[in-house]
Amino acid sequence: MQKEATIHPWCHTNLLPPSMEELRRRITKRALDAPEEIERRMSKAELEMGFKDGFDFQIANDDLNEAAKELRKIFIAHSEAPLRSDAICPI
After folding, report:
1. What does the pLDDT look like over 17-58, one tens digit per residue?
2. What 3-state DSSP class applies to 74?
3. DSSP alpha helices (H): ranges in 17-88?
């Protein structure tokens, strides 16, 4: 049975650390992970940063309140925008 296609209004938003050094500082400050896990997470973050240009929007999370405001602006603007023609995916 073939599923119908439904139009979904979405956008891909990437929340970025201000820098890799700041990301390491934040992870370390939480004191939840062993040093090996921190290194694994940092390696994964570096890999993921290579994909950042594939997102519709990027928000630098240097201030939580400001980042939340930016995300809200994107959400409101995008939810009011007409549907994209490429926004079709199977359900």
Report:
1. 999 999 999 999 999 999 999 999 999 999 999 998 988 889
2. helix
3. 20-30, 35-49, 64-80
Q: Do the beta carbons of residue 59 and residue 15 sit within 8 Å? A: yes
Contact yes or no for 88/5 (Cβ under 8 A): yes
The per-residue pLDDT of the chain, averaged, comes to 82
Q: Which two tokens stand for residue 76?
A: 């409101």
Report the distance separating Cα 4 and Cα 78, nearest Å: 24
Domains of the chain from N-terminus onward: 16-90 (3.40.50.300)
Of residues 75 and 8, which shows the higher confidence score? Answer: 75
Q: Which two tokens stand for residue 51?
A: 């994909």
DSSP class of 52: G
Among 87, 68, 91, which residue's Cα sits nearest to residue 10? Answer: 87
